[in-house]
Amino acid sequence: MLLALLAETAHHLADDAPPPFPPFEAWHMPGQLFWLAILFGALYFSLSRFILPKMSDTIEKRSDRIASDLDQAAKLNEQATEAQQALELRIAQAKGKARETAAKAAAKVDAEMTAETARVDAEIEKKLDAAEERISALRASAMQNVEQIAVDAADAMTARFGLKASAADLKKAVSTALN
Amino acid sequence: MNFALQNTAIDPIHQFQVTKWLDLRLGSIDISFTNASGFMLLGVVLCIAFFGYAASKKALVPGRTQSIAEIGYGFVADMVRSTAGEEGLRFFPFVFTLFFFVFFANMIGMVPYAFTTTSHLVVTGALALLVIGIVIGFGIWKNGLSFFKLFAPSGAPFLIYLILVPIEIISFLARPVTLALRLFANMLAGHIMLKLFATFAAQLIGAALSGAVFMGVVGILAFGMGVALNALELLVAGLQAYVFAILTCVYLNDALHPSH
Questions:
Q1: The pTM is what?
Q2: Which residues of chain B carry a pLDDT beneath 50?
Q3: Which value does ipTM take for this structure?
């Protein structure tokens, strides 16, 4: 490689005159222009006629597809939102219904309890009344017994003193003293 | 193995030498098929093959080749749209052709021993004149004489026009010259630099092999510089194709909207 380079150099140095500056040599210019025109023209023709329309078609189709896909996604999203709203509505309705049922049940239980309480209260009242009546009857009979004992005692005491009192007077005096 | 340095200078201009591959004549005009034409043909064939293959795929989800081709398509389309507006898209195939013609020529030129088509002023000059020819032709066809408002931007006082109009005319006339020279000079100078550093490295390392160790150190540095320059030239090859195409868009924009 290096040797080849050096050999090439030696070859160049052999020609004494400095070589003309190639880009400014005139002989190849018409040929360069001719081939530039043909090749640039061919490139322009094939790109603008065949290749670029195909590419723009592909790119356009893709962006169309993306746009339609996005549309569809938005539509589906909307549907999902609607479904969710419907679901939420139904849940709310069900909750309301449940609350209503619970309240009804509570009210029923409440009413039953009130009725039961009232019934029991009335029964207790009745029993109390009966007991009071019995107590007052017992008391009255006891009082009567006490009176009788007091009359008897008073009769005995007056008899000891040698006094004589009628049964009516004794009774009167005892009841005055007792009451 | 004793080579003196002054005997091993390799001509950096040799790579631009045009040699006949096929002797052709059109009347008295020499239209020989040369190495320049051969490498130009190679670039055009590669360009058509690549984009033709990529375009034939038409996949909804593009593969690698199709992706690259479509990125190129989008790149040029965006370039045209952003500099010349939506109406500029009628020139999209032309700008696309121009960009990839220059791009493939520059890139093929980066291959060692390949001929760089765009390192010849006659080629870049013809392309630049084609661009300016289209700008003037289309500008007058579309806008009539109001195309020449390009040289007199509205809203300046009269006396200013006396200075402004000649400046605008000169700057317009300079366009094809600078467009052609920029590409030509970049490719020419870049390739001369590459060749110089490569031969320099080869010579110095050759000298080191025959005993001069210090030459070898410099030679390795020169080799590193050559590698770095290769990277730079690769960038320049792409960049100059881009510059050529975007300036074409800017000039076409003037033809489309001369009053701006």
A1: 0.73
A2: 1-8
A3: 0.89
Q: Which two tokens stand for residue B109?
A: 């030129």
**Which of B8, B54, B97 is nearest residue A43 as measured by Cβ atoms?**
B97
| pLDDT over 80 (residue A5) | no
**Domains in chain B, number:** 1
Instruction: Please compute the mean of the pLDDT values over residues A109-127 and round it to a whole number.
Output: 95
List, in order, residues 6 or more apart from B65 with CB less than 8 Å away: B50, B53, B54, B57
Supply the range of the domain harboring residue B246. Answer: 5-256
**β-bridge mates for residue B34, sequence order:** B20
Instruction: With CB atoms and an 8 Å threshold, state whether A36 touches B47.
Output: no
The torsion defined by the Cα of B206, B210, B213 and B219, in degrees rounded to 10, comes to -10
Q: Is B202 on the interface with A (CB under 8 A)?
A: yes
**Concatenated DSSP letters for B184-247?**
HHHHHHHHHHHHHHHHHHHHHHHHHHTT-HHHHHHHHHHHHHHHHHHHHHHHHHHHHHHHHHHH
